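Re: [ENG-882] Designed sequences occasionally contain unexpected residues at chain ends

Forwarding the minimal case from QA. Structure tokens:
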């Protein structure tokens, strides 16, 4: 190598300039459209935008496995610099490189993570399992008569609701629908009624 010659930096600069030209506003929009409750943290939402596969996105176009023998040192340098540039640019847009659980390992995703916020026009309620099941399945079979009356009265007062189902864990406060005492809580979303003119 020549003194002062840094192959990684040269490649990083090249790929950084290329990736900067991507339509990052569109990528961010696609992430926002895909926002869902994070399965590992109900206080967060995550959304992903599929960028492509490693075969079309990465400079080498190769998928690395321990037994792969067709990658060269040059492939590894280029892919490493590309990935570093992609991660840095994604981070500058408050995004990250990574995909949802269960996707193929050759897919490349950019993701967004943010604090959970109920969709516009909806309110969030923390409810017990009985209320969640009543909304999700219209099922009151596991309740005694008093529980069923309380759940139906609570749901009548809430109005149109959908079961988000995010597990909020054990809470010491009462169910915000039927008033059930401390217990496991789940997220329920209720449509905000528009005020009459």
């Amino acid at each position: 190598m020549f003194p002062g010659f840094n192959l990684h930096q040269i490649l990083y600069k090249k790929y950084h300039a290329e990736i900067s030209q991507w339509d990052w506003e569109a990528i961010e929009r696609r992430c926002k459209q895909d926002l869902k409750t994070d399965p590992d943290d109900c206080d967060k939402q995550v959304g992903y935008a599929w960028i492509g596969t490693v075969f079309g996105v990465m400079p080498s176009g190769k998928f690395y496995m321990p037994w792969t023998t067709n990658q060269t040192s040059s492939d590894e340098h280029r892919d490493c610099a590309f990935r570093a540039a992609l991660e840095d640019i994604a981070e500058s847009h408050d995004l990250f490189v990574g995909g949802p659980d269960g996707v193929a390992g050759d897919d490349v995703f950019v993701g967004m993570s943010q604090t959970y916020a109920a969709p516009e026009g909806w309110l969030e309620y923390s409810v017990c399992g009985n209320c969640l099941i009543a909304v999700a399945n219209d099922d009151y079979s596991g309740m005694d008569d008093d529980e069923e009356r309380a759940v139906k009265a609570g749901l009548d007062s809430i109005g149109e609701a959908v079961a988000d189902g995010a597990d909020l864990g054990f809470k010491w406060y009462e169910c915000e629908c039927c008033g059930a005492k401390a217990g496991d809580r789940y997220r329920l979303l209720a449509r905000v009624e528009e005020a009459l003119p």
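QA comment: On inspection the terminal residues look reasonable. The chain has two domains: 7-115, 122-191. Proposing we downgrade this to a documentation issue.
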